[in-house]
Write a structure and sequence with these properties.
Largest sheet: none
CATH topology of the largest domain: Growth Hormone, Chain: A
CATH superfamily of the largest domain: MFS general substrate transporter like domains
InterPro entries: MFS, MFS_dom, MFS_trans_sf
Strand content: under 5%
Pfam families: MFS_1 (PF07690)
Number of helices: 24
Main location: membrane
Number of domains: 3
Structural class: mainly alpha
CATH class of the largest domain: Mainly Alpha
Radius of gyration: 27 Å
Protein name: Major facilitator superfamily (MFS) profile domain-containing protein
GO molecular function: basic amino acid transmembrane transporter activity
Order of helices and strands: HHHHHHHHHHHHHHHHHHHHHHHH
Shape: globular
């Protein structure tokens, strides 16, 4: 695949909606005679016209020559951005070990503590496409500071909160800022990295994200007994400001030559506020409906609002939040659904591998949580190695994407086979490591492939949309895998105790024991269970984890199918942009052949 012809940065960005004007010259192919009725000069002018049209239609620095970034400045950008990603990801997993203490101090009880995490994840997932769209209107460099301010403001509100509602509000604001971090990190990486180093940069971004998820619970859980929970959020304020300011200062303004002829008011007027509101509302309702117990009303309203959003984007607005050529691209949509399925299956491993170690293998809580270290190291290494060794060019990565997702699916199924107490623990560690490697490699490959499937002026939006589906995987993974797990676990425990007691119905004491075992997996080895009761509990948890991972392996087959359906075909305009260059080259060959014969 040849790269599209690129022009210099002299063309100005069009303030209106993206369009794809066609050149009215006759289409030529390799079968067209070289001595057709048009001269080589007309072919060359056709190439110039199409190249100029392409430049005028694109709003990104992608169509311009990349500014050379000195090594020291590049390191400063990378470190600042990586730390900001790490902070954002830490907030995703850090609440798991401290939300109980926070809920108790704020007077919140029951399942309400889970909203401390959901209030952060829902805006983070739902607003990612909006962040990507804003990056096509404003330079990403200028968006970093507002994002850092939102994260710091959220941390400040959490620090001073004295009620459940105030704390959740702070988490929502911080999640709003977090929505733009990963999207802008990918966009900045695409803008500043060379073609050969682009894959490595994307791998490092993913490694920072998974490092934050991996160590967030460790950092928050380890520091809270020492300093309390309020300093954990207070400390995020200067950290967010410092990293955001570091990114802003380190990126040279010349590296983001956006449209300078359009005023800020005109740029703000170009934003599709109605579409952004409808899209965000539909995603929020979807995630809210499955965050705790499945709620029917928002789950039914969300598709209706999504249909309204599609109608608005197609018929009402001139510059939609997600362009029609993105919504109408089956390759991009299949990529997004494949990413959602991958993350649902992946989060099932992250959720239930520690529970398996705790309830089935009898590990301590700290040792059970450490099972995530090899799989997350594998995730980071997979993305970095793939980016360093392979993703060093533009073009399709169809087969590598499918291969990585297939390895992930097989490793997930193998996990279901080895979820016993008899097999060596080292085997389980090796398989979760392979699972992480395949996930990291698959995420990098699919991201590179969706860039190939995207138009040049929509790749930021396409990658942000992919990030939305990826981010939603945690919420959907909790709902889907959790429903399967707890249904299987309850059934296994009830049938086991019925067989042990020899009756048709469980006694009230047995029902309380079943509820306690479901809610507290540590009771399997840390409670006062008889050997027979403990064996039933162990087998119940082992069977439930096997069932979850078998279901996720089945989902993995669907993921591979979706990824295969993305195809290798680039958008039509990319191939048309290349065609004039090929024609001009053939014209030069014809002229040189004539000179040689003379």
């Amino acid at each position: 695949m040849h790269s599209p012809a690129q022009t210099s940065g002299s063309g100005s960005a069009a303030p209106g909606p993206s369009s794809n004007p066609r050149d009215d010259t006759p289409f030529t192919s390799e079968e067209t005679p070289l001595l057709a009725g048009s001269s080589s000069s007309s072919r060359s002018s056709s190439a110039v016209r199409l190249s100029t049209q392409k430049d005028s239609n694109s709003r990104h620095v992608e169509t311009q020559s990349k500014v050379h970034i000195p090594l020291a400045r590049g390191i400063a950008i990378g470190v600042s951005l990586w730390l900001l990603i790490f902070l954002t990801a830490c907030n995703m997993s850090g609440m798991t070990l401290i939300q109980g203490a926070i809920a108790s101090q704020l007077g919140s009880h029951g399942s309400s503590a889970m909203w401390f995490t959901s209030a952060y994840l829902i805006p983070m997932s739902s607003l990612a496409p909006v962040a990507g769209r804003l990056a096509t209107i404003f330079p990403p460099r200028t968006l970093i500071l507002p994002i850092a301010v939102l994260i710091a403001t959220g941390g400040l509100i959490c620090t001073v909160s004295t009620s459940f509602g105030t704390f959740v509000t702070g988490r929502v604001i911080a999640g709003t800022g977090g929505a733009g971090v990963l999207s802008l990190a990918i966009i900045i990486g695409l803008e500043l990295a060379s073609e050969k180093s682009r894959g490595l940069v994307l791998g490092l971004i993913n490694a920072g994200f998974t490092a934050g998820v991996s160590f967030g619970a460790i950092v928050f859980g380890g520091l809270m007994p020492v300093v309390g929970w309020r300093p954990l959020f207070w400390g995020q304020i200067p950290f967010a400001f410092a990293t955001g300011l570091g990114v802003f200062i380190s990126i040279p303004a010349a590296a983001e030559a956006h449209d300078t002829k359009t005023s800020t008011r005109q740029k703000l007027a170009r934003i599709d506020y109605l579409g952004a509101g409808l899209l965000t509302t539909s995603i929020v309702l979807f995630l809210y409906a499955i965050a705790d117990e499945v709620q029917t009303i928002p789950l039914c309203i969300a598709p209706v609002i999504l249909l309204l959003f599609l109608a608005v984007e197609n018929y009402l607005v001139a510059d939609p939040i997600i362009p029609v050529k993105v919504l109408s691209s089956w390759g991009i949509l299949f990529s997004c659904f494949a990413q959602l399925g991958l993350m649902i299956a992946r989060w099932s491993v992250l959720f239930y591998a520690p529970i398996f170690m705790l309830a089935v293998r009898g590990s301590s809580p700290a040792a059970a949580g450490s099972i995530l270290i090899p799989t997350n190291i594998g995730f980071g290494l997979g993305g970095i190695l793939v980016g360093w060794l392979h993703v060093r060019r533009d073009g399709a990565f169809w087969l590598p994407s499918i291969s990585a997702l297939a390895i992930f699916t097989v490793s997930t199924y193998v996990l279901s086979l080895i979820s016993t107490t008899s097999l060596p623990l080292a085997l389980f560690v090796v398989v979760v490591l392979i699972n992480g490697l395949a996930t990291g490699g698959g995420v990098n490959y699919t991201l590179a492939h969706i860039l190939h499937l995207s138009h040049d002026d929509t790749r930021y939006i396409a990658t942000s949309l992919l990030g939305t589906f990826r981010g939603s995987g945690s919420s959907f993974g909790t709902a889907v895998a959790g429903g399967i797990f707890y249904r299987l676990l309850r059934g296994n425990l009830v049938s086991g105790f019925l067989q042990l007691d020899g009756g048709e119905h469980l006694s009230h004491a047995r029902q309380r024991l079943v509820s306690s075992l479901i809610n507290t997996p540590g009771l399997v080895h840390g409670g006062d269970l008889s050997p027979a009761e403990q064996n039933i509990a162990i087998e119940g948890y082992a069977g439930a984890t096997r069932g979850v991972w078998q279901a996720m392996a089945t989902l993995g087959v669907v993921v591979v199918l979706f990824q295969a359906l993305t195809g290798k075909k680039a958008p039509d305009d990319k191939r048309e942009d290349e065609q004039p260059d090929e024609e001009a080259a053939r014209a030069v060959v014809a002229e040189n052949e004539g000179v040689g014969e003379a």
